[in-house]
Amino acid sequence: MAKGIKLFKLLGIQISLDYTWFIVLVLFSWSLAYGYFPMKNPGFGTGTYLAMGIISALLLFACVLAHELSHSYTANRLGMDIHEITLFIFGGVARLTKEPEDGATELKIAIAGPIASLVLAALFYGASRAIDPETYPLLKSVLSYLAFINFMLLAFNMIPGFPLDGGRVFRAIWWMKTGDIDRATKIASTIGKGFAVFLIAMGLIQIFMGNFVGGLWFVFIGVFVQQAAEGGYQQVVIKKALEGLKVKDLMSKPVITIKSSMSLADAVEEFFFKFHHAAFPVMTDGRLTGLLTLTNVRGVKKDDWPTTPVGEAAHKLDLEDTMSPEDNAMDALAKMMSGQADNLGKFPVVASGELVGIISRRDILHLLEFKGGLKKPST
Ligand SMILES: [Zn+2]
What we know:
Blueprint (H helix, E strand, L loop, with lengths): L4 E6 L2 E5 L2 H21 L5 H32 L6 E5 L2 E4 L8 H28 L6 H21 L7 H14 L2 H28 L3 H31 L4 H4 L7 E2 L4 H12 L3 E6 L2 E7 H5 L11 H4 L1 E2 L12 H9 L8 E6 L2 E7 H14 L5
Parallel strand pairs: 2-3, 5-6
Antiparallel strand pairs: 1-2, 3-4, 6-7, 7-8, 9-10
Helix pairs in contact: 1-2, 2-3, 2-4, 3-4, 3-5, 5-6, 6-7
Bound molecules: zinc ion.
Zinc ion (ZN) binds next to helix 2.
């Protein structure tokens, strides 16, 4: 799952930082403190430039956050379900639980972020113009830098390559016009990949010409765009493959269950060794009460296996940890991929209190492989 640090909640959305973000913070602060600000405002001390660099980098972070929140807040108002934003190098990735249902919705969500950046750019620009350069030269410099960087964020995000905002806007409009989301996505993500290659090539040229930091930026951003374009496309393909399918179409049944009163030693002997599953639902008096995974078993010392009942070692189940046979396969996959389920990867399927099957990430991946194998190469 996404590695990162949870920061705080805003508008009901959890904000997290990816570790790569710290590299960017240092790079930004450093290049501002040793390059940009000394050039713009000569004659101050290193400490002053360093403070300006760090403050500007942190404010930039707030601006990126505002951009991402604008997307997510709009999405949630339009009925999507975004609980978490992870901030990466040049923006964020909202934990996407589903794709927009139609072009118009996608267009509104996609354009919300760039609008936020545009507003911020205008605000910082206005503020920097209002400040007297004689009295507050440094403040003016920071503000005009922020105006510039918000404008850059806007320009970068509006590149028409999926899944950048510009690519989403492009895709949404194409989608609205033709009704063909597949083709729209394919074209938009191909443009995105092409642009990524261009950025990486530009970066390498810069590095060879001696502009190491500037070139490294281009390469970074290029790799980021490339990965995003690939991932964004795959997500659409997966969604397509799972369309119309329900959990009951994919789940395994019947389910082999273990009684909670059985000892761990017997469970290992009679179930794990025999059936080679990574997890088994645990029943107490005919009711589903838990899930015993290999990790649970390993969590107990081997000497204690004969005396530890399964019910004690097993992962206790909440309603959140189960699925209904009528749930959409795509929602099921999203739930499996979301952090809530990383301890299991398997979900018991329950209908009116009865255990009717079990579904795992592997069941879904199998189906995707199978469908992928049947599909003719598309043109
Ligand atoms: Zn955006």
